[in-house]
Structures are given as structure tokens and as C-alpha cells.
Design a protein that fits this description.
The complex is a heterodimer of chains A (about 120) and B (about 110). Chain A has no helices and 13 strands. In chain A, the strands form three sheets. In chain A, strands 2, 4, 5, 6, 9, 12 and 13 form a seven-stranded mixed β-sheet that branches. A four-stranded antiparallel β-sheet of chain A has the order 1-3-8-7, with no helix packed on it. Chain B is built from no helices and ten strands. In chain B, strand 4 and strand 5 form a beta hairpin. The N and C termini of chain B lie far apart (about 35 Å). The chains are: A mainly beta (about 120), B mainly beta (about 110). At the A-B interface, strand 5, strand 9, strand 11 and strand 12 of A face strand 4, strand 5 and strand 9 of B.
Chain lengths: ~120, ~110
């Protein structure tokens, strides 16, 4: 079982809806990530939080809004999405040791989003 | 040129075969080399982790890194149907952000 928990597992929303994806980890990791994965493609990085601060935003449209309330939680707020945003959204976490992130990411099982 | 190149396959082998999965990369700053396995409709899971050049063995899996030729390999011995998955190589630099660059992923099927 993964130690990164994502909810909901499935989400269907209309283009005018507002919804949120949630992610939780209790491994003491201080880096957390959102990735987007389309079918038969590798995960694409969206956001990185290091020590609860946004450190990387990969030019993601503003209709995706991340939030890191504390070191264990990561949210992704969704608003006015487009059908092409339908994908598997993956949360991940990793340790930061002596200021270095080795990139050893632990992924959740993902939230499968469908935008109608 | 992509930063990481990986043949997407698909690759189909009989049970018991030795499987070789490979990636090439262009960024000399990469120091950490990961292989992730992703089963259908699941998140990726870390399979092997190697720092710098050399070999690392874990059961039936062996990861090899040749930094001089920028070549990464994963070998699976005595492959099993349960190894059927997509395998993603992911090199990374030693930055403080842990930004992974995934290869395309190779779809592997091991048939009984």
C-alpha cells in the first residue's frame, strides 16, 4: 500500500465547477509534488512544494491552484477546467536531506479526473 | 533532442526471459538515476535507485548506469507475468527541488 494517500480516486466535473484534489503523507517528507499524466504518456511535473513553499510552477494555467496547508497535506484546487485537462493527477513526496532532494519520489495512486 | 530518450515498446517476452530496458540522456548534471514501475491505473512506484555510475542489484532486478555514455539500463532476470507494467527511467540532478525528468516509459508484457 502506498504511503501517499490521494482523494478522491475518481472525479467528474463540468467546466464551470470548482473542486479540489487532496493528498496526504505521513512520512515526514518536506517536498511534495503534483504531476499530471495522460494516457500512455509519462507524468508531467506541475508544481513542487519545498518546506511548504511553492518552489516550482511549470507554467501551469491559473485554473489549477495548488495549496500546501502543512507539511503533510497538499491540495490542488480546480476551477473552470477544460476537457483536455482530463487526466490522472498524481501526488508525490520526497525527503530533503541536508538541503538536497535526491528525487526519490513516492507517488500516490492518483485521482482520475474527467472534465465534461 | 529530448533530455531523456526511452523506447516506448511495447515489449512482449515469454515468462523466464531476461528483459533489458534502456534509456539515454543528455544532461551531464544528472547524478541520481531511478527506475519506476507503473501498473495499469496505479501511480508509479520506485523500483531501483542508483547514484552515479555503476551497477545495483536487487533480487531479479539490476540497474546499470554508464555516465560516460549517458546510458541507463534495467535488467529483469527470470521475468514473471507480474512484471508486466510500464517501466519509466527517471534521472535527476542533485538540486534541492528533486525535479525528475521521466523517459517515455516502456510497456512490458510477460506472457506465461
Amino acid at each position: 500500500d502506498t504511503e501517499v494517500t490521494q482523494t478522491p480516486k475518481h472525479l467528474v466535473m463540468g467546466m464551470t465547477n470548482k473542486k479540489s484534489l487532496k493528498c496526504e503523507q505521513h512520512m515526514g517528507h518536506r517536498a511534495m509534488y503534483w504531476y499530471k499524466q495522460k494516457a500512455k504518456k509519462p507524468p508531467e511535473l506541475m508544481f513542487v512544494y519545498s518546506y511548504e513553499k511553492l518552489s516550482i510552477n511549470e507554467s501551469v494555467p491559473s485554473r489549477f491552484s495548488p495549496e500546501c496547508p502543512n507539511s503533510s497535506l497538499l491540495n490542488l484546487h480546480l476551477h473552470a477546467l477544460q476537457p483536455e485537462d482530463s487526466a490522472l493527477y498524481l501526488c508525490a513526496s520526497s525527503q530533503i536531506l541536508r538541503g538536497t532532494n535526491t528525487g526519490e519520489l513516492f507517488f500516490g495512486e492518483g485521482s482520475r479526473l474527467t472534465v465534461l | 533532442q529530448k533530455e531523456v530518450e526511452q523506447d516506448p515498446g511495447p515489449l512482449s517476452v515469454p515468462e523466464g526471459a531476461i528483459v533489458s530496458l534502456n534509456c539515454t540522456y543528455s544532461n551531464s548534471a544528472f547524478q541520481y538515476f531511478m527506475w519506476y514501475r507503473q501498473y495499469s491505473r496505479k501511480g508509479p512506484e520506485l523500483l531501483m535507485y542508483t547514484y552515479s555510475s555503476g551497477n545495483k542489484e536487487d533480487g531479479r532486478f539490476t540497474a546499470q548506469v554508464d555516465k560516460s555514455s549517458k546510458y541507463i539500463s534495467l535488467f529483469i532476470r527470470d521475468s514473471q507475468p507480474s512484471d508486466s507494467a510500464t517501466y519509466l527511467c527517471a534521472p535527476a540532478g542533485g538540486t534541492s527541488y528533486g525535479k525528475l525528468t521521466f523517459g517515455q516509459g516502456t510497456i512490458l508484457t510477460v506472457h506465461p
